Amino acid sequence: CVCVCVCVLVGVKRVIDYAVKIRVKPDKSAVETTNVKMSINPFDEIAVEEAVRLKEKKVATEIVAMTVGPTAAQEQLRTALAMGADRAIHVVTDAQTVPLHVAKIFKALVEKEEPGIVMLGKQAIDDDCNQTGQMLAALLGWPQGTFASRVDFKDDKEVHVTREIDGGLETLSMALPAVITADLRLNEPRYATLPNIMKAKKKKIDKLTPDGLGIALKEHIKTLKVEEPPKREAGIKVESVEELVDKLRYEAKVI
């Protein structure tokens, strides 16, 4: 394999664990996060795993995990370090961020670290925006391979990204440096072993701030109200096709 770049930058986000039942706050201002289990966004975990595999194949020499969020988000960085990242960067802020904020901060970190690849999850499971990778590529003027289900490096100047589309599989060839976002079937992330979890505690996490990077977190949107979806009514059994059609036509009004 060819050593492609000095480092791979991998973005991770702190989100409510995918197995947790989401509850809305009584005042309907947001979802409840107090005393709720938080984890790395699953798609970001896949991106970290892919970066680690690239290092194992000697395609990359260093993995740097990065996140934007409150002090508690260092927990997710430690998980990334335990999986195999070499060091981490934590841009600390308690402000509510949107994808454009994160993309601008990541751009500043890219300019500072000068990686050959930036890997992100295709989207976060809390806001489902699917925007950060695309915005970052646009701000950098870099090629982008989104929804990646396979990544192949041909040499130190070119990468092929296979992505799932409605009609099947599409393979893109792009020059490095590039931004790649991970889809579900790119890989299956490993579990961090206890020795690696202990080693992660000693790995370096650099702490920065948006102001220190020259990024102003302007408020773009305001959440007016958050509501739970309506509870689904119990189904019924019908005795005949005629009765089914009747109910679909006159009660459900879908035909």
Rg result: 21 Å
**What topology, given as strand order, has the largest sheet?**
9-8-7-10-6-1-4-5-11
Indicate the proportion of strand residues: 15-25%
Structural class label: alpha/beta
Largest sheet: 9 strands, mixed
Outline the low-pLDDT stretches. none
The N- and C-terminal alpha carbons lie at a distance of 58 Å
**Order of SSEs, N→C?**
EEEHEHEHEHEEEEHEH
Number of strands: 11
Describe it for me?
The structure is a single chain. With 255 residues, this protein is of the alpha/beta class. The chain has helices at 42-56, 74-83, 99-113, 132-140, 194-200, 241-250, and strands at residues 8-11, 14-16, 38-40, 63-69, 87-92, 117-121, 144-153, 158-165, 168-175, 178-182, 205-208. It has a nine-stranded mixed β-sheet, sandwiched between helices. Strand 4 (63-69), helix 2 and strand 5 form a beta-alpha-beta unit. Helix 2 packs across helix 5 and helix 3 packs across helix 4 (132-140). The radius of gyration is 21 Å and the shape is globular. The mean pLDDT is 92.
Explain briefly what this protein structure is.
With 255 residues, this protein is α/β, with parallel strands linked by helices. It has six helices and eleven strands.
